[in-house]
Amino acid sequence: MSLLPRVVRHHGRLFNVCSARSLVTYRSQSTRAEESVAYDTAARPFEKIPGPKGLPLIGTGLDYAPFGRFPLKTHLRESFRERTKAYGSIYREKLGPLDLVVISDPKEIEKVFRNEGRYPERVQLESVRTYREIKKLPIGVVNLNGPEWQRVRSSVQKDLMRPKTVGAYASLQDDVTRDLVDVIRALIGKEGSGGQVQNFTNFVYRWALEAISVVVLDKRLGCLTLDDLVPGSDAKLMIDGVNDFFNAAVKLEMSGAGRLYKYISTPTWRKFANAIDQWHGVAAKLLKEKLAKSAAEEGKPAESDTDFLQSLLSRSDVTFEEAMLMAVDLMAAGIDTTGNTLMFNLFCLAKNPEAQEKLYREIQEVVPAEQPIDDKVLNRMHYLRAVVKETFRLCPTVGNNIRTLDRDMVLSGYVVPAKTKIFMAHDVISSLPEYYPEPEVYKPERWLRDDESSSVQPFTLLPFGYGPRMCIGRRFAEQELHLGLIRIVQNFHVGWAGEDMKQVNRLVLSPDRDSFVFSARA
Predict the structure, then answer these.
(1) CB neighbours (10 Å) of residue 53?
(2) Ordered structural domains, the chain, with CATH
(3) Which of 253-262, 380-389, 495-504 has the lowest mean pLDDT?
(4) Nearest 5°: CA angle at 331, between 285 and 312?
(5) Region 348-359: what's the mean pLDDT?
(6) Quick one: which of 157, 400, 500, 518 has the fewest CB in 10 Å?
(7) What keyword terms does UniProt attach to this protein (predicted)?
């Protein structure tokens, strides 16, 4: 189908299709419920589920205030672990209007996932939905539920989940990663650097944006340079806008006071909306340029089979606005989530040099220095995948999954009614010795299938979710992450200086510091 008529018909709305970043989550599979959950006559009533007692209206919200036991930004993870110790593997907590049942038993988590109906339901990001409704935009695949979710998801996943489609971009993203290596080498070569890259987070975010731009835009933005990003440049506006979005979104979504935006325009809401407008404007401009280029080249022989945007827009079962919104969301998703995950992996390797050297030996064996990397090479990197899983266990970017039940269920001996929000606390499970012997120890070997000690139970760790709503961007995220780790460890020994990295909550978990020390390998 020709793109030109669609571009001509819709280009006037192009700048309006760009909206707040959806946290693109949960891969699609056509699965139906595998078992039916009947009432157990011995099951206890919902009201008997233990949990902390809160106050009227706000529930336990004060615990998560800056002065509370679990400040939202820095100690949210500890709340679930301490509550589990106090109340067991199932407890109930009311956070303002949100009534959660938190579970940390892999078998019960499996039961929830196995009994999802045709349209698994996620809790919506209300701030994002509100923004998009005000702007009269599609609310996005993450916020959709029911048949509309299935329609959009089943269409766009064809461009996002097929290994062959994703693998076609490996060499392009590898070129981006090689540029990051060149930047690191130049920065640590400066006199007095001591091997430390100042503000490494900024360079990693540039890498992540560049790596997804070669997919969505079929072009390089040119932001992986030694110089500071120019104020007002596309990359600077995009990265700053996404960072501001996350800082504001966590307050709007996870604190009772933050929800005042529904009634008045609060300072946090204005910051949130301005952040979206900022990176939206950049993404819209870049996408418009890409469409104009595709229209101008229509009819010419194709030089490659990697034109993601054209393929996405050619889908007849999604609207132009929905397809463009997906492209915008992917660009934003590629910055924080992938960038943060790379830094968590590098930190774990820096603090565990034996694991780093074992990964280096695998890289030397599978990927000689000048050999290009494709999806076939990545499939042979077994220890690399174990490193990534172990990092997700100890330093998750998104540590938990949440669903809304579409039917009554019995979980851990309690009747849980339909429409209850179920919080599956994988991060809690990751800290428990009954599931991970020596849980505080970084041990990638526990994930190797040929290791005699490998006995990790299913459903203990699901960083990308599970089932029909598994993270739709998973394959691209993993490919970028694997390429980044291979090229950095191949060229540098990664060390760490100073106080250990901690994680802060910005809707996704982010590093609070980036004190990496790099030394070139001989």
Answers:
(1) 8
(2) 4-31+116-399+463-520 (1.10.630.10)
(3) 253-262
(4) 85
(5) 98
(6) 500
(7) Heme, Iron, Metal-binding, Monooxygenase, Oxidoreductase
Tokens standing for 479?
């490919």
The label of the residue with tokens 């539920």 reads: 145
Q: What's the pLDDT at 42?
A: 84
Q: 3-class SS at 518?
A: strand
Contact 195, 495 (CB under 8 A): yes
Closest to 272 measured CA to CA, from 285, 287, 262 = 262
The residues that bridge with 44 in the sheet, in sequence order, are 414
Give yes or no for residue 31 having a pLDDT over 50. Answer: no
CA distances from 187 to 200, 235, 322, 492, 499 (A): 10, 20, 41, 13, 22
Between β-strands 503-506 and 492-496, what pairing exists: parallel, antiparallel or unpaired? Answer: unpaired
**Residue 441 is which amino acid?**
V
Q: Which amino acid is at 298?
A: E
Phi-psi region of 54 (alpha: psi -120 to 50; beta: other; left: phi over 0): beta
Torsion, Cα of 190, 195, 198, 204 (10° steps): 110
Cβ neighbours for 520, distance < 8 A, ≥ 6 positions apart: 185, 188, 491, 492
Tell me which residue has tokens 């992938």.
338
- State the Cα–Cα distance between residues 13 and 10, nearest whole angstrom: 5
Establish whether 18 is an annotated binding residue. no
Q: Three-class SS of residue 458?
A: coil
Banded model confidence at residue 510, pLDDT cuts 50, 70, 90: very high
Whether 152 and 322 have beta carbons less than 8 Å apart is answered as yes
DSSP E strand stretches across 448-502: 492-496
- Of 287, 282, 285, 138, residue with least CA distance to 216: 287
